[in-house]
Amino acid sequence: MSPSVAVVILNWNGRKHLETYLPSVVKHSGDAIIYLADNASTDDSVAYTKENFPSVKFIINETNGGFAKGYNDALKDLTEDYFVLLNSDVEVTANWIPPVIEVLETKENVRIAQPKIKAYLHKEEFEYAGAAGGFIDYLGYPFCQGRIFDSIEKDNGQYNISREVFWATGACMFIKASLFKNLNGFDERYFAHMEEIDLCWRAKNMGYSVFYVAESTVYHLGGGTMNNTNPRKTFLNFRNSLMTLYKNDQSNFRLFKLFLRMVLDGVAFFKLLISSGPKHAFAILQAHFSFYKMEKIRSSAENPNLAGISTSSIVWMHYFRGVRKYSQLK
């Protein structure tokens, strides 16, 4: 008997995205059950979807708790074997689900996976949020096969081998439902940004694996709800990155790593002050003060799986050694 799959699209005032991208999801998702989880939208996106896509089921969240709480509320009562968390601005392709489910069903300890993520507007390139699977360096800075900071590669087949990675993107994340519930879902304090890396790290601290599946491809627009010009995004990225490192790093040098992060984030402050203006720069300061005030909760580590953590500093390799491609790190 085939496992059941729920494709869950979190929506907030996203009618435009639903008009553009939902047709591909309905067309190519086979027997999967498609849910639109609405995060207290004030537009007519729910009415539009009910009228035009009668096969889609609905979950109505009472409040907009962001990505983290939105998905926690949406998934708590679902009974399918696998959840596919899919952004509303993703175009999927034929046969995008079966290769990923096959990996989750057959590879030992793999509980989370993602397809190849390419850019909707530049389909020959990888997309920022996830590319060909995510990694992290020892200071907690994330990067991907196909994307290091803002350097994005073209897809020339260089990452066409499925493999274990460290984190899977929340833009299109497949996860075993039982694990999502055992982990108590996302940490709702994140609101948005990097909550998927925290979730994957907590799963890896329990000994599970995360996989990139090259045989499946989707196209992501990106920046649908909060683009790079928004200082709020800068704040969330820096604060949540610090929290993720504090919560999940199990080494004896965790506090020293946080000190190094403070130094490097200070450099980023001056860089953003020059390149993006004071609002973005001071968002870094706000991120640190917010992190220092937060309740500190450590994740448990029964049998941590450290595959995918780089022992090199990706900041050093990128900005001082000129590394622009993941393949150069090897």
What does this structure look like?
The relative contact order is 0.14. A hairpin with a 2-residue loop joins strand 9 and strand 10 (151-152). The chain is α/β, with parallel strands linked by helices and 330 residues long. It starts with a strand and ends in an 11-residue tail after the last helix. The protein has a domain at 5-220: Spore Coat Polysaccharide Biosynthesis Protein SpsA, Chain A. Strands 1, 2, 3, 4, 5, 6, 11, 12 and 13 form a nine-stranded mixed beta sheet that branches. The protein has a three-stranded mixed beta sheet with strand order 8-7-14, with no helix packed on it. The radius of gyration is 19 Å and the shape is globular. Helices cover 36% and strands 22% of the residues. It contains ten helices and 14 strands.
User: Would you identify the regions where 5 or more consecutive residues have pLDDT less than 50?
Assistant: none
Approximate helicity band: 25-40%
Cα gyration radius (Å) = 19 Å
User: CATH class of one domain, anyone?
Assistant: Alpha Beta
Number of helices: 10
Helix/strand/pairing category: alpha/beta
Let me know the number of strands. Answer: 14
CATH architecture of one domain: Alpha-Beta Complex
Order of helices and strands: EHEHEHEEHEEEEEEEHHEHHHEH
Largest sheet: 9 strands, mixed
Q: What is the assigned CATH homologous superfamily of one domain?
A: Spore Coat Polysaccharide Biosynthesis Protein SpsA, Chain A
- Through-space gap between termini: 41 Å
Shape: globular
The whole-number mean of residue pLDDT values reads: 94
